Amino acid sequence: MGSEFTGHCLCGEVRFRGQWDEAGYSACHCGQCRRWSGHLWASAAARALTIEGPMRWYRSSDEAERGFCPECGSSLFWRKIGSDRVAVASGAVDEPTGLQLTGHIFVTDKGNYYEIADGLPQEAQS
């Protein structure tokens, strides 16, 4: 069993709790994630996730949807359509998070305004 965590959006209207699948999280550099988050999307897979508050889901493609707070606009969750597995925004988790960056995905789509130089594994796609 993974460790338990709690978190919330910027305004505190959406609160959540769950368990990590593992202690690692990844950074996604795809165009949708960069546009949605303002840079890159860093998240970790969770299970037994409970969400309270006025959550909204936006279907961003035929494959996935993104969860956010309709009050403050915080980007909080990503999930594949029809899946129970949810990726939780690492930055919205209460500290101590217990998380560690393990790698990068969709690096072929990364923005031209930054470099990835931390030496962690990089996947061209996911």
Write down how many β-strands occur, each being a DSSP E stretch of 2 or more residues.
9
Q: Please bin the fraction of helical residues.
A: under 10%
Distance between the termini: 25 Å
Number of helical elements: 1
Q: Which structural class do the helices and strands define?
A: mainly beta
Globally, the shape reads globular
Sketch the topology as an H/E string, one letter per element.
EEEHEEEEEE
| Gyration radius from CA atoms, angstroms | 14 Å
Strand portion, in percent? 35-45%
The unreliable regions are: none
* Largest β-sheet summary: 9 strands, mixed
Summed up:
The protein is mainly β and 126 residues long.
Your description of this structure?
By secondary structure, the protein is mainly beta. Helices cover 6% and strands 42% of the residues. The protein contains 1 helix and 9 strands. Strands 1, 2, 3, 4, 5, 6, 7, 8 and 9 form a 9-stranded mixed sheet that branches. The longest helix has 7 residues, at 31-37. The protein is globular, with a radius of gyration of 14 Å. It starts with a strand and ends in a 21-residue tail after the last strand. The mean pLDDT is 94.
